[in-house]
Amino acid sequence: MAAIPDVMRAAVLADPGHLRVEELPVPEPGPEDVLVRVHRASLCGTDLKIRSRAFFPDGGPPPGTFVPGHEYAGRVVAVGSTVDEFRVGDRVVTEAHRGCMRCANCLSGSYTACLNSGRHEKGHRTQGMTVNGGFADYVLNHVSTLHRLPDEVGFDAGVVLTTVGTVMHAFDVLGDLLVGAGVAVLGPGPIGLLAVQVANALGAELVALLGTRESRLELGKIFGADLALDVRDGTAVERVRAVTSGQGVDVVLECSGAPAAVDEALGLVKRGGVIVLVGFFDQPVTADLNRAVMNGVTLHTVRGEGAGSLARGISLARRGRLDTGRLVTHHFPLEEVTEAFDTYAERRGDAIKVMLDIADDPAAS
């Protein structure tokens, strides 16, 4: 393992809509921290909001001081004085969220809904959102947010598993087995395409994927969707109901964040069924909630990974149950972070998961 330098490269927030690569001091781990040498990091929709500063109610931190990035994987290069769970050289992937572990929500396991969110002095951290993240050579993580990667899982796949954690969390809230259930997934983005795979791995009887991008719907078929339907023709909901004897599906995962998607979900779900809102909405949503009330439909929301969800995703990957390679469409070096963001935002080349290759170690993949 190479010596740890005093300074590192980091992509920092500049003016709204811009990032720049600068040199920052390498952070030093506290007693419960782990210093990770980042090998891969990927972009998601939240990163676009962070770059624009729309994510921050107060406009965000001063230019040149904040490092985004909450999806990343790498190797342990240093550990704090109390850390014995990991050793230098371990390959790891991170959870973004670390709750304060003292509020009522955290103590019940709901640390992504921490009541002290944003209060670093009380122990809360969200990598790349409230504390510096992984668009850098090195990043600090609390020991509780790291998971060891099996030898069978490369760094690219490891980063995608952070998104799988969100999908697992969405299925967690059902409180029931998925075996034999009918599932509809709205939105064939990374979360939706992974949801198709996870639903199949968990034993769903029917998996329908609905969206608007033909190439993504075709990919959904490869991943095991029994139906892959374009919602623009206006018949998708009826076609799903037709194959469920008119009843609708047991579970709907709304992963698109589209304004009309909640109403579509209400049209897809059966009486007494469950809708889980996973995607973030860019604007207020209008939906006929009487359909939920009159039909006993339960609505849940999730944010990020839940307790143990990423670990279960890693287990699926280790057993070969997930195809993450087809989702990684682009690679850029850290110095080309602006090009990476623009590629992702504009969906150039049908971009799905855009990776930053941060370590130059050929063993990083």
UniProtKB/TrEMBL annotation:
Its cofactor is Zn(2+). It comes from the Bacteria. The keyword Oxidoreductase applies. Keywords: Metal-binding, Oxidoreductase, Zinc. Residues 14-356 form the Enoyl reductase (ER) domain. The keyword Magnesium does not apply. PANTHER family: L-THREONINE 3-DEHYDROGENASE. Belongs to the zinc-containing alcohol dehydrogenase family. This is Alcohol dehydrogenase. It comes from Lentzea flava. The lineage of its organism: Bacteria, Bacillati, Actinomycetota, Actinomycetes, Pseudonocardiales.
